[in-house]
Amino acid sequence: MGDPSPLLDRPTINLRHFPALEPGRYDEPAVHELVMMEYDQQQVADVWTGSGEIQLFQAPGEELADLAPVRPGMGFRASMSYSVTEVRPLT
Q1: What is d(CA 29, CA 20) in angstroms, rounded to the nearest whole number?
Q2: E strands, 1-91, where?
Q3: What pLDDT tens digit does each residue of the chain (91 aa) get?
Q4: Phi/psi of residue 11, nearest 5 degrees
Q5: Which of 19, 9, 14, 4 lies closest to 79, judged by CA?
Q6: What is the distance between the alpha carbons of residues 13 and 38, in angstroms, rounded to a whole number?
Q7: Is the overall model pTM greater than 0.70, yes or no?
């Protein structure tokens, strides 16, 4: 067991994506933006740490595989909760 809190104490960037629900406009999302979250009351529990390994596969329309890590580092699994206090769009 270990504490990943130092790794989680950095800016959190998310992609907000809400698809359009109108017929014929499914490829035009109603919301598709990068945002930075501010949060508080973070709690981390049931932490397991060890060596890490990850494989990201190519998928049509997804860029996640392009972000694959160059070298593995520490891996962890934990339960986390927090309250979002602010969401700022990144331009």
Answers
A1: 5
A2: 12-18, 31-51, 74-89
A3: 556 666 667 788 999 999 999 998 888 899 999 999 888 888 888 888 888 778 888 888 888 888 888 887 777 888 888 888 999 999 8
A4: -55, 140
A5: 4
A6: 10
A7: no
